[in-house]
Amino acid sequence: MAYIIQGDTGDWEIVIGLEVHAQVISKAKLFSGAATEFGAEPNTQVSFIDAGFPGMLPVINEICVEQAVRTGLGLKAKINLTSVFARKNYFYADLPQGYQISQYDQPIVGEGELILDLPDGGTRTVGIERLHLEQDAGKSIHDMHPSKSFIDLNRSGVALMEIVSKPDLRSPEEAGLYLTKLRSILRYLETCDGNMQEGSMRCDANVSVRPVGSTELRTRCEIKNVNSIRFVQQAIEYEARRHIDVYESGGEIRQETRLFDSVKGETRSMRSKEHAHDYRYFPDPDLLPLVIRQDFVDGIKAGLPELPDDKKARFMAEYGLNAYDSGVLVAEKASAEFFETVAKGRDSKMACNWVMGDFFAALNATAKTIEDPPVSAANLGQMIDLIKDGTLSGRLAKDVFALMVETGKAPAVLVEERGLRQVTDTGAIEAAVDAVIAANADKVAQVKDGKTTLLGWFTGQVMKATQGKANPAMVNEMLSKKILG
Amino acid sequence: MTQLTDLTLAEARDRLTKGEFTAVELTQAHLKVVEAKRSLNAFIVETPDLALDAAKASDARRQAGTNGSMDGLPIGIKDLFCTEGVQTTAASHILEGFKPPYESTVSGKLKAAGAISLGKLNLDEFAMGSSNQTSYFGAVENPWKKTSDPKAKLVPGGSSGGSAAAVAARMVMAATGTDTGGSIRQPAAFCGITGIKPTYGRCSRFGIVAFASSLDQAGPMARTVRDCAIMLGAMAGYDPKDSTSVNMAVPDFEKALTGDIRGLKVGIPKEYRPDGLSDEVAKVWDQGIEWLKAAGATPVEISLPHTKYALATYYIIAPAECSSNLARYDGLRYGLRVPGKTLDDMYKKTRAAGFGAEVRRRILIGTYVLSAGYYDAYYAKAQKVRRLIAEDFRKAFESVDVILTPTAPSAAFGQGEGSDDPVTMWLNDVFTIPTSMAGLPGLSLPAGLSADGLPLGLQLIGRPFDEETVFRVAGVMETAANFTAKPEGV
Questions:
Q1: B372: which chain A residues are within 8 Å (Cβ-Cβ)?
Q2: Which long-range contacts (CB under 8 A, 24 or more apart) does B390-394 make?
Q3: Is the pLDDT assigned to residue A419 strictly greater than 80?
Q4: Residue of B58, B104, B131, B183 marked active site
Q5: What is the pTM of this model?
Q6: Are the C-beta atoms of residues A182 and A174 closer than 8 Å to each other?
Q7: Spatial contact of B33 and B171, defined as CB atoms under 8 Å apart
Q8: Mean pLDDT score, B439-450
Q9: Which residues are in the Asn/Gln amidotransferase domain (chain A) (predicted)?
Q10: Could you tell me if residue B417 is inside a domain?
Q11: How many domains does chain B have?
C-alpha cells in the first residue's frame, strides 16, 4: 500500500519517524516519592525534589526502571545493563530545576522492532531506535489570568519513556497503525495506560519527503505534542504537502520545530534550528550510572504476558481465525480475553462472528467498555450453546442478544421468560406450513411452474406465523416437500 | 580553670559528662564570644535563642542519660547546609530570606547527636571563592593578624571562611564546612585550625546547596585532630536520599588515634614543590617530614604527574556543574524575584541582581564548556584528565599509606589582595584540588607560623575511605607540631 503524493514535478513519498512520550505507570515519580495520580488539585503532588528546592537530590525509582525494561522487552529490544542519566539544560517556568533529567547517549533500551498489522491482514516491521527514561516537566497554564501564567508542578518529575522509531514509516496510515500497535503493547505490558487525551501518551512526528525511488533523507521538521492519532495523521499529511510545495516552488525546507493547530488543521513554525536550544547535555553528577543485572532483566522477561503478536498468531493457529479478525481481537487485551472466554470449548468461528459482529456493534451503540460490557462473555457463550443445541435459531438468537443488551439477563432466562424457544415439533410446524399453503394457492402454483425463489417468501410467512420460533431448516424442508413433492 | 571557650570538643564532652558545667553554661560562654567578635562577620544568622533552648534540652537529656555523642557542644553550621526554619542563603542575595522547610542530613545528624548550633556561618557565595570575599553578606575577617601589620584585615580563606574564623576565634568549638576544591582545608590552614574533607560519598550531600555535585563534600572543622574525628563520626554515614553517598559502616574515627605510625610509608609528591612555592611553606613541609620520620614512618618520594593539569581541569568541571546546579535560582518559587516584562526578562533581571560577579563568572564558564561544539574539547577532555589524576593517586597508594603536602601555597593574605585577578585567586587551591578531583580524604592541620606570625597548614591525603590512617598520622603530627599559638585577643 505505497502512499504516493502526486506533485507537479513527479511522485513523492513521505519519510516519518515518531517519538512517543509514554507516561510510566508507577505510584511515585521517577526521582521522588510524590504521587502521580492524574487529575489531582494543582500542586498537591509535589515534593521538594520536584520543585527544585536547594540541596534536593534525585533518587531513582526502581519500579520505573522495571517498567522501562519491561517495555523494552515487549519491543524485542536490546536492554542496556548500564545506562546513564544526563541533564538537559534549559530555562522554563514549569521546569523547576532548570534542567530535565533524561538519558542521552546511553539509554536503558536500544534497538528493537514493532510489527504493524495492515488492514489487508499483512504485516510490516518498523524499527525502534531506542527507549529512554526521563522526567516530565510541570504544566504552564496561560488562560487563567490576563497577564499571569500559572504553574502546576503535579506532573513535574513524573517518569516518561521516550520511544523513538526509526524513520521507517511511509504514510499517515502507517503512523496511525504504529501508534495503535505501540499503545496496544504498552497496555498489554501495563507500563503506560496509553491515554492520549489525558496526555499520558504524546507524540512528536519527524516528517520529510523525497521523490519516489530516492533513498536520501531530506531535511525534516519535527511536529510537537500532537494529542490524538487522527491529529498525528492530519499533521503528517499537511506537513508532507507543505514540503512538496516548498520543494516544487524551488524553495528549501529549514529544519525546525512546528506545532500542529488542530482547529485549522495546519502546522506552523515554533522555533527554527538557529533558535534551537543548546541543551548542554552532560551526565547528571547527582546520579551514578544506572547498572542493572541480567537476572533482573531475566526475571522481568519471565513475567511478561503474551503480547499482541504472539496472541494473534495463536488465535490464527488455535481458533482458525483469519489474520484480520485475529488482529482486531488482540488489539486490546480485554477484547482478546473476552473472545477467549466466549470461544472456549465452542465453535470458535461462530464465537468470532458474534464478538466481532453483534457484540462490537452493541459496544459502540451503548458506549460501554470491554471492561464493563453490555453482554458478559459468559452470557454470550451460553447463547452460542443455545444455538448449537437447537434451542435458538440464528434469527431468534439475534432477538435474544438484543434482549440481553437491554436487560442484562442470561439467555436461558430470557428464553424461558419470553418463550423464545425454537419450535422443532413437526406437528406444530406442519400445521403452520399447511395453513400458509392453503391460504396462498396462487403462489403455490407459481412455485410449481418453476418460480422456486418464491419458496423463501413461504418460509418468511411460516416464520411470521410462528413468531419466528419455527426451526427454519425444518420449515424449508417441509415446504419444498409439500409444494414440489 | 581553662576558659570554657578554650576547651576542645573532647575535653568539653568529658567534663559535661562529669557534670563540671552544663550545656547551657557552655553555650552561654560561646554566645558571649559570638557577640564580642561580631566584627569578624563570621555569622550570617545568629540563633542564640534556639541555641539556649537546645542547650536546656541537652542538659535534660544528660540527666536522663539519653545524650548523644556531641551532646551540648556548641557548633556553627556553614550557611550552605539547609536548616529547617532558619534562613539558608549560601551567602547569596538570590536566596536571601529563604527558610528551608527541611534539614540537611548532615546538620540533622549533628543535631541528633546533641550538638548545639549557634547559627549559620558566612562563606563565599555558593561556596565559590578562596578568601570569603564573594559573600553577599560581606567579607569575613581572619582573627589572625600579621605581626608586621597588626591593623591589616586578613582573609580567612574560603569558601568555609566563616567556619574557620569562628572556630579559630573560639566563637564555636567546631563547625561544619564543605569542600569542593579545598574549601575546608585552605581556610583551616589560614586560620590555624584542623579540618578534613572526607572521601567523596562519606557524608550525605542531601540538603546542602549544591555547587559542583561530583566534588562537594561536607566535613568537620575544629581545633584538634581528635575533635575532627569525633565530629566526622557524627556527620558521616550512608543516606538513601543521596545516590552518591556510599553504603559503608562508619568507623570509630577517634579510636584510630593510636599515636603509632611506625612502619607507615608517607608519600612526598615531587610535583608539589613548584618554583613559586614560598620558602616558609617549603620549610614547614620539610619539618613535617622530619616529624613523621622521628615517629617511625618512612618518607617515600612519589610522582603525581597529572597534578599540573588539576587546576585547569577543576575550573572546567566545577563551573560546568555549577552552571546547571544554579539554574534553579530563577525567581519563581523561592528567594529573590525581580519582576520583568516577560519570563526571560524576569530571569535575566533576577539572576543579574541575585548573583555576584564570581558566581556569574563561573556560570558563564560552565555554560560555555558544556555548549555544543565545545563539550568534547573541554568537558569531555576534563573528565578524561580527571580519571588520569585519580589514577596517579591510585598508583601512588600502591607504595605509600598516606601522602603529605602543603595545604596552600601561602599564609593568609590581606582583604582586597588578588581579588582583581580571579586566576591568581584560584591558585590558592593548587594543592587541594587534585585530592578533590580524585575524591580522596584530605586533612589540613596547623604545623607552624610564618615569619609574620600567621599559621601554615600541612595536608595529609589518604586512600578512599581510609580517613582512619589520615587521622592516625595527623594525630602524631599534631603532637609533634605542638601548635599552641592563638589569634590575637583569644
A1: 278, 280
A2: B390/B437, B390/B438, B390/B439, B391/B306, B392/B303, B392/B304, B392/B305, B392/B306, B392/B307, B392/B434, B392/B438, B393/B304, B393/B434, B393/B435, B393/B438, B393/B440, B393/B461
A3: no
A4: B183
A5: 0.92
A6: no
A7: yes
A8: 98
A9: 337-483
A10: no
A11: 1
What value does the mean pLDDT of chain A take? 93
Residue in A with minimal Cα distance to B366: A280
In this predicted model, what pLDDT tens digit does every residue of B20-56 receive, in sequence order? 999 999 999 999 999 999 999 999 999 999 999 999 9
* Domain assignment of residue B380, yes or no: no
Element (H, E) at A458: helix A455-465
Residues of A in contact with B346 (CB under 8 A): none
SS3 B222: strand
CA distance A362 to A339: 15
Tens of pLDDT along A353-391?
Answer: 999 999 999 999 999 999 999 999 999 999 999 999 888
Asked whether residue B438 is domain-assigned, the answer is yes
Query: What is the domain extent for residue B139?
Result: 4-262+434-481
Instruction: Say whether A285 and B328 touch across the interface (CB within 8 A).
Output: no
Confidence of residue A352 (pLDDT cuts 50, 70, 90): very high
Give the model's confidence band at B1: pLDDT under 50 very low, under 70 low, under 90 confident, else very high.
very low
CA atoms within 13 A on the CB side of A257: 11
Q: How far is CA A51 from the centre of its chain?
A: 35
Q: Which domains does chain A have, with CATH numbers?
A: 5-301 (no CATH), 306-418 (no CATH), 426-484 (1.10.10.410)
Q: Is B148 a catalytic residue?
A: no
Q: Which three cell numbers stand for residue A333?
A: 487485551
User: How far is Cα B132 from Cα A72, in angstroms, rounded to an integer?
Assistant: 51
Q: Is residue B192 part of a domain?
A: yes
Nearest CB to B209 within list A54, A99, A288: A54
- Residue keyed to cell 547551657: B24
- Chain A positions in Cβ-Cβ contact with residue B326 (cut-off 8 Å): 98
CATH number of residue B137's parent domain: 3.90.1300.10
Q: Is B395 a catalytic residue?
A: no
Cis geometry, peptide bond prior to residue B159 (ω within 30 degrees of 0)? yes
Across the interface, of A51, A52, A286, the residue whose CB is closest to B243 is A286
Q: Which residue of B has its CA nearest to A32?
A: B241
pLDDT number for residue A396: 85
